[in-house]
């Protein structure tokens, strides 16, 4: 098959000029400003303990016995992208700190050597050349080609290794021997840095949130009783791609009826029925940053009195927590506020003897950070400060009634309080029912195809 394709495509390859490398490696999010990459790396060096930290890029996936690299499935390691802003399978970023807080720390970026001829089969990557200098802000002296793996002859009868040896391991061993240092786990130093987002990170999260809110609104407008969960999922994910998102931030959750009570239900195989709620927990990833948004709505267009009572209890708890967001508080304190509000107002909605904030009904935590990972790095006992982005997502789950309600938004801490990044998706009962009525009457029109 591959050889046949080569014969068919060679004439086209000869006649068609290659796209500029910069165009091939760009993403909808655009490049990370060099000055921010330099600031991130400097902050890490200034706070890392004595030792050597090796930040590894992701490995490329392949099918067909490893002969078909899957460029479309490639997602760079979050920490590698945070410091370099590039996608480069096999790459390594090495930090060397001879003493904690020392100004003598250094870093070296190892990337694949530039190919001798253009690769006609796979997407272009950033190599160890002047392009890497421009996009990372590192001097050429700090960029080196990765070592070439040496294939040893296999002894007859010996088992075939399931994974190739790491060609970079000898380089790390040499560095450790030469410096007399030990390799450290970078996570503890990285968590406080990634906890507070810089201007470019917030820009990407705003765009991811805008795209996601539009997708949830489209699902509310277009959903009808009898639709399959995968059809509703298709509306959401089509909007993501139409707006320029590279991928979903996590497997989309579309649960109708009884599936609305399953937290991570992501197989979308059930047909919805009149009178049920649909819970959608789905988000776009834009420029490597993922937001997180959940909405619950009535598939028939209007909440029943019972559904409305549960929904407004969840909404009230969420709003109580949102109203308490400010620099200096903690995620743990916000959860106390949400559960306290729910306890005070739940009455017998969930059970005659147990209030709804109980872990029997509100069965998960309230918040988690979002960013390069949808469950982003979370420094232990950290307080909120301007630039922190996280979710507020209370829920109540009543499996016996096939009724689950979760409302989730991403909040940005500001100097004076907060901003809801996902505010574009309707959140109140009145706004949801209004949007759904517009969708059924033909008032709401699909948004024109556009990218942020």
Shape: globular
Number of helices: 12
CATH homologous superfamily name of the largest domain?
A: Creatinase/methionine aminopeptidase superfamily
User: How many strand segments?
Assistant: 17
What is the ordering of alpha helices and beta strands?
A: HHHEEEHEEHEHHHHEEEEEEHHEEEEEH
Task: Describe, in plain words, how this protein is organized in 3D.
This protein has 452 residues and is an alpha+beta fold. It has 2 domains: 15-193, Creatinase/prolidase N-terminal domain (Creatine Amidinohydrolase, Chain A, domain 1, 3-Layer(aba) Sandwich), CATH 3.40.350.10; 196-441, Creatine Amidinohydrolase (Alpha-Beta Complex). It is built from 12 helices and 17 strands. The chain has helices at 2-15, 21-25, 34-47, 78-84, 130-136, 169-179, 187-195, 199-222, 229-242, 305-322, 331-345, 429-441; strands at residues 51-56, 62-63, 68-69, 92-97, 106-111, 143-145, 247-248, 253-256, 277-281, 284-286, 289-290, 294-298, 389-392, 395-398, 403-406, 409-413, 418-420. The strands form 6 sheets. A 4-stranded mixed sheet has the order 1-4-5-6, sandwiched between helices. A 3-stranded antiparallel sheet has the order 7-10-11. Helix 8 packs across helix 9 (229-242) and helix 10 (305-322) packs antiparallel against helix 11 (331-345). The radius of gyration is 25 Å and the shape is globular. The protein starts with a helix and ends in an 11-residue tail after the last helix. Residues 1-24, 150-154 and 445-452 have low confidence and may be disordered.
């Amino acid at each position: 098959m591959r050889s046949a394709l080569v014969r068919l495509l060679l004439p086209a390859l000869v006649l068609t000029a290659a796209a500029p490398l910069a165009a091939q490696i760009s993403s909808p999010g655009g490049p990370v400003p060099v000055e921010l990459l330099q600031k991130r790396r400097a902050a890490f060096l200034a706070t890392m303990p004595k030792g050597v930290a090796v930040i590894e890029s992701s490995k490329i996936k392949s099918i067909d016995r490893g002969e078909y690299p899957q460029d479309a499935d490639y997602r760079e390691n979050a920490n590698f992208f945070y410091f370099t802003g590039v996608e480069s399978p096999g790459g390594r970023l090495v930090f060397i700190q001879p003493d904690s807080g020392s100004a003598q720390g250094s870093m070296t970026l190892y990337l694949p050597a530039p190919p001798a001829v253009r690769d006609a089969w796979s997407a272009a990557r950033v190599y160890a050349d002047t392009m890497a200098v421009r996009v990372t802000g590192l001097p050429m002296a700090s960029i080196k080609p990765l070592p070439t793996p040496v294939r040893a002859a296999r002894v007859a009868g010996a088992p075939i290794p399931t994974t190739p040896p790491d060609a970079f391991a000898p380089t790390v061993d040499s560095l450790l021997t030469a410096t007399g240092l030990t390799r450290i786990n970078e996570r503890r130093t990285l968590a406080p840095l990634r906890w507070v987002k810089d201007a470019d990170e917030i820009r990407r999260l705003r765009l991811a949130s805008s795209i996601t809110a539009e997708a949830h609104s489209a699902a509310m407008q277009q959903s009808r009783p009898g639709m399959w969960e995968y059809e509703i999922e298709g509306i959401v994910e089509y909007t993501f791609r139409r707006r320029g998102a590279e991928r979903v931030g996590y497997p989309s959750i579309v649960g109708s009826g009884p599936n609305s009570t399953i937290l991570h239900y992501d197989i979308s195989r059930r047909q919805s029925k009149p009178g049920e709620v649909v819970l959608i927990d789905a988000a776009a990833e834009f420029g490597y940053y993922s937001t997180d948004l959940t909405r619950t709505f009535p598939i028939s267009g209007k909440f029943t009195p019972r559904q409305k009572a549960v929904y407004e209890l969840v909404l009230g708890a969420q709003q109580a927590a949102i109203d308490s967001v400010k620099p200096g508080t903690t995620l743990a304190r916000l959860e106390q506020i949400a559960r306290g509000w729910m306890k005070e107002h739940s009455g017998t909605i969930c059970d005659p003897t147990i209030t709804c904030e109980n872990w029997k009904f509100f069965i998960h935590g309230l918040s988690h950070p979002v960013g390069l990972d949808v469950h982003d790095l979370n420094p232990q006992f950290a307080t909120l400060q301007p630039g922190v982005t996280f979710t507020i997502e209370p829920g109540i789950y009543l499996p016996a009634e096939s009724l689950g309600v979760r409302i989730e938004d991403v909040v940005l801490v500001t100097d004076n309080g907060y901003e809801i990044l996902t505010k574009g998706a309707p959140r109140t009962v009145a706004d949801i029912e209004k949007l759904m009525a517009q969708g059924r009457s033909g008032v709401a029109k699909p948004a024109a195809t556009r990218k942020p």
